[in-house]
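ENTRY TYPE: paired fold submission
RECORD: A
CONTENT: sequence, then structure tokens
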Amino acid sequence: MLAAGPLLGPDARISRAVVRTVPDAVTERLADLGNVEIAVPVLLLAMAYAGRRSRRWRPALAAGLAMALVPALVVPLKEWTARPGPLEPWAAGYFPSGHTATSTVAYLGAALLLAPYARRPWPMAVALLLAGATAVGLVLRGFHWPLDVLASWLLCLPLLLCVGAVSRSTRGSSSRTPSRRTGPS
């Protein structure tokens, strides 16, 4: 169990200062944005839309693989660290936050898939808002420490960078392929 370290003191102080400063009804709904039943269908819809629209399924499959890797990365870390929760010191397995990781990969992955079809950067703005709201809800409700959330974001960054790289490489190769409208040059 990781029970010591220079970051745990500030983490506990921040948590004590903010937990339950917003009504539970609000923070629970924000935290629920990280539930698999809510976040994953958003990603699945974006995968289907982007795949059908572009007829290139590699980016959608990369986003799906990133989501499948979330529990494979989060669960062993939770077991290894066995960190107790802010409001449940008898329970373990709070580090990193699975809800934060799920919402981050689902919403930002969906935004990466939808970005080529949006005229403005709204998919990424909405995704950042949803992932951030999830994290804030988890911390304010006392379900997670701030470092649990930060660790999840850092854990998801390489997954999302891979999804973005696959999306860009597929778009780059599609620009060399003649479309039905333009035909061969």
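RECORD: B
CONTENT: sequence, then structure tokens
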Amino acid sequence: MSLSHALLGLLAIEPASGYELSKEFERDLGRYAWQAGHTSVYPELIRMAEQGLVEVTHEGARRSRTYAVTDKGREELREWLLAPWGQGVVRNEQVLRLFLLEALEPDETVTALRGLVEHTEGRISELRRLREEQDAEPRQGRDTLGQLAAEYGLRQYQATHDWALWAIEHVNKRQGPDPA
């Protein structure tokens, strides 16, 4: 995935300024899916406009510009969304940490895994709360984490939580009884 695809998706939902788009990356999108700051967003919007993927639909005070996705941009987004899953560069710091846990002593590994259990429990609670709020008062546009994305995140955190508990048990079996 690239920043341009994230921006195309946001603009396909609703036209926005660079400032508004930057703010989206400070919310759920940036917390759960893709991080980007204003120093990345603005140059990318300019590049995308030069490529004909987005266009400026309004210019306001202080050179504020509202962007909208073009037909060419919608087609690019559509192709990317419908492309087979699993293609692209993988950069997942959390999974990298899991690969490298064996560099720790077993008790440190268990400590790290317990931290993962606590982290996922917090995220599960948060996503359940968000989902309940959405069920009670459905929202539209970019102002909320999408129901499908929330459910995916909830299931992903639950799977990670269950895996971490299994991994703690596995490490403890390798080193003997848990001293705690």
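NOTES ON RECORD B: The chain has eight helices and three strands. Residues 106-136 form the longest helix (31 residues).
STATUS: closed
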